[in-house]
Write a structure and sequence with these properties.
Number of domains: 2
Helix content: 40-55%
Shape: elongated
InterPro entries: GAF-like_dom_sf, Sig_transdc_resp-reg_C-effctor, Tscrpt_reg_LuxR_C, WH-like_DNA-bd_sf
GO molecular function: DNA binding
CATH class of the largest domain: Alpha Beta
Strand content: 5-15%
Distance between the termini: 25 Å
Order of helices and strands: HEEEHEHEEHHHHHHHH
Low-confidence stretches: 164-174, 221-230
GO biological process, one term: regulation of DNA-templated transcription
Largest sheet: 6 strands, antiparallel
Organism: Microbacterium album
Keywords: DNA-binding, Transcription, Transcription regulation
Radius of gyration: 24 Å
């Protein structure tokens, strides 16, 4: 994905978040943006009466949004024009729209500010936890999606490092992976399965599924690609999730904590997968899944 495509995806994410912030907080004006070229550049607007907000790019520490990003918490003012706790670098934008009450909710990823969402109104409004709490929920949802996208990109980059690059002889079998490479492959696969459950974006989910298929085919064992064509076993996504974690040596309790499932539910998925695979133990189920190309 090019930088332009990534930014387009990010801007769509912000636009959805701005609509959701307005819905949850009932602020008549909402806008927001992510960091681009050293500042949080506002790219999505809802409810504004003028074009005054266009071009607004907020730096950390500057203005209400900059302070929110610096402190990693929401900041609010009921009278923006006379507010003394903030700098007024962006008055021509905010006051140009006629905004009097303003709330800024930072988007925080891995402890770092990645952008900011705003809610505002043209007159005084009782701003407090009633508005701040849902605004931060929306900001946190954006942060979660950004974390998922970053992890997908990281795993794709890692996959390129272990994928055979010789495309001139497609009939030649790939070199078997080393033990450490296979372990990394299995950890990546299991983590991607877990991440997929949190992804709402269909395009991102499709990229994850494609990556999972590549990971499952990269074990370097020739019998896997041949056997998968002969196997009629169909495991559910959750059965595969559980088996992928079992393959890493995790207990049912650990799997449940990672996948957000009760331990009894993990056992049920595992038992179902074992029955489908005709395996009498969890380790046999993993071995057969790998042989049939269902797991890397």
């Amino acid at each position: 994905m090019t930088l332009q495509e990534q930014r387009a995806d990010d801007r769509r994410l912000v636009a959805d978040a701005v609509r959701e912030l307005a819905r949850q907080t009932r602020f008549p004006v909402a806008f927001g943006g992510l960091f681009e070229d050293g500042a949080a550049r506002m790219t999505a607007f809802l409810g504004n009466h003028t074009n005054a907000l266009e071009g607004l790019a907020v730096k950390i520490e500057r203005g209400l949004g900059g302070r929110a990003m610096q402190e990693l918490r929401p900041r609010m003012t009921g009278d923006y024009r006379s507010a003394r706790q903030i700098t007024h670098d962006y008055d021509r934008y905010i006051l140009g729209e006629g905004i009097g009450t303003l709330l800024a909710a930072p988007i925080i990823v891995e402890g770092q500010p990645r952008g900011v969402l705003y809610g505002g109104t043209w007159g005084p409004w009782g701003v407090g936890d009633v508005s701040a709490a849902p605004a931060m929920r929306v900001a946190d949802a954006v942060a979660t999606e950004l974390r998922v996208r970053a992890e997908v990109d990281r795993r794709v980059a890692a996959l390129r490092d272990v994928t055979p690059h010789d495309t001139h002889s497609v009939s030649r079998a790939p070199e078997p992976l080393s033990a450490s490479q296979r372990e990394e492959l299995r950890e990546s696969y299991a983590e991607l399965r877990r991440i997929t459950a949190d992804v709402a974006d269909a395009d991102i989910r499709g990229r994850l599924e494609e990556l999972e298929r590549k990971l499952a085919s990269l074990s370097g064992l020739p019998e896997a690609s041949a056997a998968v064509k002969k196997s009629d076993v169909k495991l559910s996504p959750r059965e595969i999730d559980v088996l992928a974690r079992v393959a890493l040596g995790e207990t049912n309790a650990e799997i449940g904590a990672l996948l957000g499932l009760r331990e009894a539910t993990v056992k049920a998925y595992l038992s179902s997968a074992m029955a489908k695979l005709g395996a009498s133990t969890r380790h046999a189920a993993v071995a057969r899944s790998r042989k049939w190309g269902l797991l890397p």
